[in-house]
Every structure is written in structure tokens, then in C-alpha cells.
Amino acid sequence: MKLLIGIIFCFLVLGVESQSWVDFLKQAGQGTRDMWRAYSDMREANYKNSDKYFHARGNYDAAKRGPGGAWAAKVISNARENIQRLTGHGAEDSKADQFANEWGRSGKDPNHFRPAGLPKKY
């Protein structure tokens, strides 16, 4: 429901002027899938110190889709970090996660955070 409200907000208030709303929605959906794939890969890999890499990679892949993908990545990343904060997880870790999220969304190489020895599959 919040996602739908957010999309409507973008259309009405921010005005997706440079592209059609259909393109924006398509990019947002693709970006959401990119974020889910990075999360699934992180869980599958279960590799020590790889968290920041998967944060950066998910945001990077989503943002490459266009403004809709970047928007979806930001909403998902912020929601995840806010939930962690509310459940009492460390603020330091959340800050580092957000740094990796922004790194990826800005188009910088997510491999900057890639831990040594992480299988090439990821």
C-alpha cells in the first residue's frame, strides 16, 4: 500500500515529466526485482562481510534501469534501514549500509565492497 501511495505521490506531486508514467512504473518494477535478486543472492551466498557488496550491487542494478529503478532502490533501502533501526540493530551498521546503498545508486562500481573470496557467481 505504501508503495502505491509513493508511486501516486511521484506522479501527482513530483510529476514524472521526462518520461511516461508507464516507463517509470516498468523501471520501478525492474528495480524492485534487482533489489530482490541481490537480497536472494546475499542469503544464498551466506558469505562473511559481503553485506555491503550486495547492498551496493542491488542499488546499482536498480538505478541502471532509470529514474523509476533508482526511486524503487531508494524506497526499499530506506525502508529496510528504518525497520532495522526500529528493531534495535546497530546504528553504525545501518549507516554503513546506507553508504553502500548510495554508492551503488550513484553508479559507482559495487565491486568496491566485494569481499575477497566471494564466488564469481555473485
UniProtKB/TrEMBL annotation:
PANTHER family: SERUM AMYLOID A, SERUM AMYLOID A PROTEIN. Residues 87-122 are annotated as: Disordered. The keyword Signal applies. This is Serum amyloid A protein. GO terms for cellular component: high-density lipoprotein particle. Coiled coil: none annotated. Belongs to the SAA family. GO terms for biological process: acute-phase response; cell chemotaxis; cellular response to interleukin-1; response to bacterium; response to stilbenoid. Residues 1-18 form the signal peptide. Major acute phase reactant. Apolipoprotein of the HDL complex. Keywords: Acute phase, HDL, Signal. GO terms for molecular function: chemoattractant activity; Toll-like receptor 4 binding. InterPro entries: Serum_amyloid_A (IPR000096), Synovial_Prolif_Regulator (IPR052464). It comes from Sciurus vulgaris.
